[in-house]
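Q: Convert this sequence to structure tokens.
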Amino acid sequence: MSLLADLVNLDLSDNSEKIIAEYIWVGGSGMDMRSKARTLSGPVTDPSKLPKWNYDGSSTGQAPGQDSEVILYPQAIFKDPFRRGNNILVMCDAYTPAGEPIPTNKRHAAAEIFANPDVVAEVPWYGIEQEYTLLQKDVNWPLGWPIGGYPGPQGPYYCSIGADKSFGRDIVDAHYKACLYAGINISGINGEVMPGQWEFQVGPSVGISASDEVWIARYILERITEIAGVVVSFDPKPIPGDWNGAGAHTNYSTKSMREEGGYEIIKKAIEKLGLRHKEHISAYGEGNERRLTGHHETADINTFLWGVANRGASIRVGRDTEKEGKGYFEDRRPASNMDPYIVTSMIAETTLLWNP
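A:
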């Protein structure tokens, strides 16, 4: 008799060319991820060759019950680290039957910005540092913390090792390898300042692909924590008090910034970002005011400040960039629950298309 694990790990290629495609989309809250699977007749590597599909938008908060059909448009393909073989994960965005993007489809507007010739010519690179917190499932309290109590103060936990300081490494490492398998340009992981909090980095990736990769990396993380019986939180300040919040620092450069004289281009871009500070903050994640307090390596939410090697600034420029006169900068304002489609396209629009 086969065990459940044997059946879950069946290699379909032994006796069939058919594959399973997991269609993935962002749900009605703007942060929840949904997915469902379908059988295809054979391997597919081009998203334009995949069929569109539909779902009940009234059950995801994205359509009324009397007109509930929402159409999924496949946009990016990744290898499936759970089913493996030729099976795939498919990042989709959502449209009405008439072909209009639904209000929660933030990818469509981002794609238009990234398709602008002035943006394309600058080849924008993004590196996104996604922080998150692992929670004990039934009590929603950070992994490794005593239930109803607190660990020792921050200090020993950042990039730490040891059973009394590092909690959830098996989940983190499984996620790291699964993302590499999927084809995500994940560039690293580390334990964060608050115990039970971790970070993974995606990039450098060009244009809208950075956001597709972050969403799929989030999806894979939620699937792994589901298996482990742990909850992942993207709340920007999961524990009140003297504990670090969770952000999604977004590193950014353009072709002009990476070339000789790029530091002057960087300073002009930062000046533009400062002029639109309020607009950016309003789009950088829910609950960010609980995180951007001017403490715990943040700038106050109402203040725009930039500096070299300053982790208490809104925008940080690295020492290497200053020294070499070219490179990139880091927008430290986005919250961990930000929509990368909104954040990356807004940074490109403000720095490359907007004229004050």
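The radius of gyration is 21 Å.
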